[in-house]
Amino acid sequence: MATSIESSQTTLSNDEILRYSRHLIMPEVNMEGQKKLKAAHVLCVGTGGLGSPLALYLAAAGVGTLGLVDFDVVDYTNLQRQVLHHTSDVGRLKLDSAIDKLKAINPFVHIERFDTYLNSSNALSIIDGFDIVADGTDNFATRYLVNDACVLSGKPNVYASIFRFEGQASIFGAKDGPCYRCLYPEPPPPGLVPSCAEGGVLGVLPGLLGVIQATEVIKLILGVGEPLIGRLVLVDALAMRFREVRVRKNPECPVCGVNPTMKELIDYEQFCGVRGEDSVLAASTKIPEVQPEELKRRLDAGEDIFVLDVREPHEYQICNIKGNLIPLGDLPKRVHELDSSREIVVHCKSGARSAKAVDFLRQSGFKRVSNLTGGILAWAERVDTSLPRY
Amino acid sequence: MPIKILIPTPLRPYAGSKSIIEVNAQTVGEALGDLVTRHPDLRKHLFSEDGKLRSFVNVYLNDEDIRYLSKDATPVKETDTISIVPSVAGGR
């Protein structure tokens, strides 16, 4: 196994012995294991949905040094699942909020803060000080970055990801084990796989998966049990089914294969097409936009404008501006319901889906169609502040 | 022969909201072909324009990745289950 923690110089005080007594009386942990936990350095990338339960349990278990990487600020939509952060923390840095809670749970834990977005220029130096990395990030670019940085540094990457009611967990980059690129050689093109912000996530799901990560981190430190190496656990919370599939080490993997071609970190935004997609969309389609204030003024003036809402029915129930609802996915088969002679303004939650709808309608021959800039969120911020935001 | 395919959450909107779909096939390739014939909206999510399985969508026969079996040509038995496991990145 990859991790061997040097703990011969570590001692536990009487207070610590009392605190960890339920560990100490188990032969699988005992004094030696608890000293290993204290000597261990674990880096949690992200203190959000996965990072919350992960860091809470690692701190409680007595992992001696926890590194936290985050740049984000707590907002109200985080509180449904990011249990490190309380209502009174909204507006604070997640790092500050997280450190308060972790110190309150276990003052013996030493915390290293990294108030930054993990990127190709800082990842290797940050990871260098740690034995194990736990990836609780939320986008493909950072997932591949964490993977490659862990493989290049020889550090195991305890991984989980979530979507709606489903999660995946594994350990990548362990000695002789596969890496994330062995599982998924390439990321999906931007826009094809929705994020949690777009697709939603059951609040307890990151709890389930983050606790799986914490369990695997602790097992790696202790050197006990069967680590989740070479296996991908699939959790379906709706069916409450746990399955697993094999993850093979790909001999042709560009980063961990027999003849690796990647010897250093790359530009992950470019690799994941994030930058390319934005510029292609902006340059090639030039989607006509209308600002919320402008739409409001023209509607108030009684102009004949057909407002098309391309969100989902359950989003319409949360809030709406009395638009005509046709979800984006239904648009191709319901396009005949629209009158191409009328002016159409399309909106969604924040403007991305409606931009696709405008693009589709223009390709279908509609001439007078534009996109509401910033979607209903911008409308709620700038025109009607009584609307709920979600 | 009839064989079960497990559909993951992100793809269910394109598969009539179903989590399990039974298809008729002798091989994994035939099973996926039958699946996208029954649910054409799934096609672009599983296959690129040249008809290849997308690199961020993994297909397993029971617990084994078909890339390490005989890929599309892998024969199936009635007791087998095919799983489609796309990559997801969420975590916050």
Question: How many separate domains of chain A?
Answer: 2
Q: Give the SSE order of chain B as H and E letters.
A: EEHHEEE
Total DSSP E strands of chain B: 5
Q: Which class best fits the helix and strand makeup of chain A?
A: alpha/beta
Mean pLDDT score of chain B:
94
Computed Rg of chain B: 12 Å
By CATH, the architecture of chain B is named Roll
Largest beta sheet: strand ordering of chain A:
3-2-1-4-5-6-7-8
Percent of residues in helices of chain B: 10-25%
Task: Provide a descriptive summary of the structure in words.
Chain A is an alpha/beta fold. Chain A folds into two domains: 14-277, 3-Layer(aba) Sandwich (Rossmann fold), CATH 3.40.50; 287-382, Oxidized Rhodanese, domain 1. In chain A, 37% of the residues lie in helices and 16% in strands. Chain A contains 17 helices and 13 strands. Chain A has helices spanning 14-19, 21-24, 30-39, 51-61, 94-105, 123-127, 140-153, 180-183, 196-199, 205-222, 268-271, 274-285, 292-300, 313-318, 331-334, 352-363, 375-382; strands at 41-45, 65-69, 110-114, 132-135, 157-163, 166-172, 231-236, 241-246, 289-290, 305-309, 324-325, 343-347, 369-372. In chain A, strands 3-2-1-4-5-6-7-8 form an eight-stranded mixed β-sheet, sandwiched between helices. In chain A, strand 1, helix 4 (51-61) and strand 2 (65-69) form a beta-alpha-beta unit. In chain A, helix 4 (51-61) packs parallel to helix 5 (94-105). The longest helix of chain A is centred in the middle third of the chain and has 18 residues, at 205-222. By secondary structure, chain B is α+β, with helices and mostly antiparallel strands. Chain B has one domain (2-86): Ubiquitin-like (UB roll) (Roll), CATH 3.10.20.30. Chain B is 16% helix and 25% strand. Chain B is built from two helices and five strands. A five-stranded mixed β-sheet of chain B has the order 2-1-5-3-4, with helices on one face. The longest helix of chain B has 11 residues, at 28-38. Chain B is globular and about 40 Å long. The termini of chain B are far apart. Classes of the chains: A alpha/beta (390), B alpha+beta (92). At the A-B interface, strand 5, strand 7 and strand 8 of A face strand 4 and strand 5 of B.
